[in-house]
Amino acid sequence: MTRTADLAPQAEGSTSPSPTPAAAPPVWRDRRARNRLHRTEHRWAAAFIAAPVIGFVLFTVYPTVYALYASLTRWNGLTAPKFIGLENYTALFGDEYFLKAMWNTFFYMIGIPIGLTLSLLLALTLNRQIAGRTAFRTIYYVPVISSLAAIAIVWQFAYNGDFGLVNQALSWFGIQGPDWLQNTATVKPAIIIMAIWKGLGYSTLLYLAAIQSVPASLYEAAALDGAGALRKFRSITVPMVRPVTFFLVVTNIIGGSQIFIEVNIMTPNGGPEFSSASIVWYIVRKAFKYQQMGYATAMAVVLGLIVFVITLIQFRLNQRNSFSID
Amino acid sequence: MARKTTTRSATAESRTANILLFILLAVGSVIMLAPLLWMLSTSLKTKAEVFALPPVWIPEVPQWDTYTRMWSEAPILTGFRNSLIVALSVTIVGSVTSSLAAFALAKMRLPGKNAIFIGLLAGLMIPYPMIMIPQFVMFSKLHWVDTLLPLIVPLLFGNIVMIFFLRQYLESVPDSLIEAAKIDGANYLTVFRVMILPMIRPAIAAQFILWFMTVWNDYLAPTIYLNTPSKQTLQVVIANLNTEFATQRDYPLIMGASAIALLPILIVYVIFQRQIVESIALTGSKS
Question: Could you tell me which residue ranges the ABC transmembrane type-1 domain spans (chain B) (predicted)?
Fold first, then answer.
């Protein structure tokens, strides 16, 4: 509407709605008209961005601020929260279950370097001209897209001491396997093995994409200089895939700090002697089984802080890395 | 690269290496697939065969009725329906809001839009468990607990990862194209519908599928919000089946239901494999 008003005021009553070409240039030089045009654009842009911004404020910012406040209260979620200062936080340090859940959560992260090493080797292998490599890529990727809940159920069954798949396979080699999930020494490794199995295809895919984007000339030059396969791997491949490694380390640590589904399904009671309980598992239990919303929120805030600090450190490190390369 | 090797001995060497690696990959494939194949085989066993020693690998008479009786013995069908309702409404509406926002952020003038975008991205750092409890109380005050609404409504407002991805994708579209459309006096919604949408359709499709998978496979939020069996999503239904039927040692039923929960996504993956793989590879390398 602004268009016809601005561009063709003299064309009133004319049957042609389009302005004459001669009339167009002065309009673009007119600041007021341009401002008006921009204002329309601003309004449209604001309308398009409105949904995610409103959603963000309503479902992320507000709950975050509320969580920070609620962590300072005694609160059952039904009646009004009662302010108690830092009491929840000081209580955390005396809560052996919290400390144990924290320890377990960090322990699970042993799986990250193992999984990344395996997937880098797998990606290198799948990058070669090997028969059936497309089929292999699909097979290794199937666990990634499978639902974690269903997978956890299958693995829980597979870890059964008497008739589970894992111990049946071990018995071929004359090994008498333990009852994996009922044993404090094996329950965490069992969950780690499953997590590696589940995530292997994803990191392999990312590494494969990164390896394929390394310029072949680098390898050719290295070959001319007489570099062997190991040397090429160490001096070319590993540095060139560093951005992917960085991405995977950050996302894996953030994801790993929130491990819940595996623990909740495979060990519904937190494992023998609380040895598999993770921090999120403990938060959910405290909040929704015992209605200790304030206390659970304090734990959640600690988790949020940890994620924040880890991300910050990682980005610092990455920045330094890219500086030294430049 | 291997093809460029000049000396004959090197070619022979790499051929042996490839054969060795092929064997390693094949063994690895067995490990990757074994739990899933075992799930399928168990679902077709009789209860006696499940606990038989020595183990039965292929059931003598496949018990196909596992797959018929589970629909009547457990709320699988309603679980399926609820999962579909959540996943479809979220991804369809959310994709529209996300792509409109991506268009505005990439190609339109708005003071402070980059600050808004960075703010949204920073929000990704906030872990769900931290906002989960306030959100829960918020929705319980609205009497939305034990309905699908808490799983749907927050996601209708768009997906920041998708916005990020589409915005990157739109960066490659020349501004002049859009300027031309604007000078022609096209309304911005029309520009989006006629020009932008067809251009970013492959990117939307890939993100749509990935998002659908995430929502379909979600477990934490559904398990918190849904108590009544007829209102639960499929993942919660099978998880509850697991605790309920394990005491009855009805492992064929549990494994059959787990297989059913995997199936839709596996089919989608097989059909859209290429788009999914490309989209994921791009996500990793662009970060």
Answer: 80-272
